[in-house]
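Review box. Two proteins, two foldings.
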Amino acid sequence: MSTSSTGAAAAPVTGNAVAIKNFAFSPATLQVKAGTTVTWTNQDTDAHTVTSAASGGPLHSAALATHAAYSYTFTKPGTYAYICTIHPFMTATVEVTR
């Protein structure tokens, strides 16, 4: 008999940093409190952006070269989905709580 794996999706991670590496945002779901400044750092050799998935969203980084960083302070609770506009298959979410 085999044991089953949990099969659960990755749980949200708390903190204030997101790494961009291997063409992915890590963690894919970050949970922070309102007022937290989150910093994304590009660890890939290709450029990436941090851009809100929905039009009018608050995230609008320039193309980040290797080791470049972008920061944003989330002031309101909500779920903020974002993508890399250069590589739109790269998606992630920041969940902001009170």
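Next protein.
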Amino acid sequence: MIDPMTFLTIVLMAIVTYATRIGGYLVLRNRALGARATSVMEAAPGCVLISVIAPDFVSNSPADLIAIALTLAAATRFSMLPTVTIGVAAAGFLRHFIG
């Protein structure tokens, strides 16, 4: 059973992430961005995703802490999509076997 608050949180974060992407496009579509502004626009969705895992940094669950460490290690090697995939898979696998 999916917790309604968890589901609502995921949906709202998806909406915020999409709004960030489309909002930046609509507001800045006729302007040339500098390198710094481009970097900020590219980092915004990642910041929203970080807010999902930030509460687990203070978790007492060893499975979550190990999954965070694996995700951070993956983030140093891979782009966003493989890192998120590895993080979700690690959290699911470790929660199933460690608890």
